[in-house]
Design a protein that fits this description.
Blueprint (H helix, E strand, L loop, with lengths): L1 H21 L20 E9 L2 E9 L4 E9 L6 E10 L2 E10 L2 E13 L2 E4 L4 E3 L4 E3 L12 E5 L3
Antiparallel strand pairs: 1-2, 1-10, 2-3, 3-4, 4-5, 5-6, 6-7, 7-10, 8-9
Keywords: Signal
Protein name: Lipoprotein
Organism: Flavobacterium plantiphilum
Length: 158
């Protein structure tokens, strides 16, 4: 009885093995294609603040991961103009950015903050600054005041 059991298992094994060997593998395996990520186009917005005879123009490029690049051009009445770039990020409704600018022939870096009040307005923040590694930075970001001293209103980008 044991012999019949062993022989039947061997025959079954041979039949299964030979049937597996005779199968053709003409199947073509197609790897799923990954969709290319769309090239991200930052959303460019332009703003202007006019304070008496001074004009400040702010250009912002904000991408979908909230990185911010931009420019700030400050034209002061009877004073030297300052112009530079902004590089930072947006946290909630607030932009924190380093402003690298030239004024009176000197290049400087200063941290800036802007809060979005509505779809057409940013308000520049101010607070106590400290010199940290050749960069002026807010001493305590939780104490930045956005009380409306410099208000930027949306304009058409030129």
């Amino acid at each position: 009885m044991k012999v019949i059991y062993i022989l039947s298992n061997v025959v079954l094994f041979v039949i299964l093995a030979s049937s597996c060997m005779n199968k053709k593998t003409d199947q073509v395996v197609v790897a799923p294609q990954q969709a290319e990520a769309p090239i991200e186009t930052p959303k460019k917005e332009c703003y202007q603040a006019v304070i008496e005879k001074d004009t400040l123009r702010l250009t912002l490029d904000i991408n979908t991961v909230n990185d911010v690049n931009g420019e700030l051009d400050a034209s002061y009445f009877e004073k030297d103009r300052s112009f530079g770039t902004l590089l930072g990020n947006m946290r909630g409704d607030t932009i924190f950015a380093d402003y690298k600018f030239e004024s009176e022939g000197k290049t400087s870096i200063r941290e800036m903050a802007f809060i979005k009040k509505d779809s057409n307005t940013y308000v520049e923040g101010h607070g106590e600054m400290i010199d940290a590694n050749d960069r002026m930075a807010f001493k305590d970001k939780s104490k930045i005041k956005f009380d409306g001293n410099i208000v930027y209103h949306k304009i058409n980008c030129e």
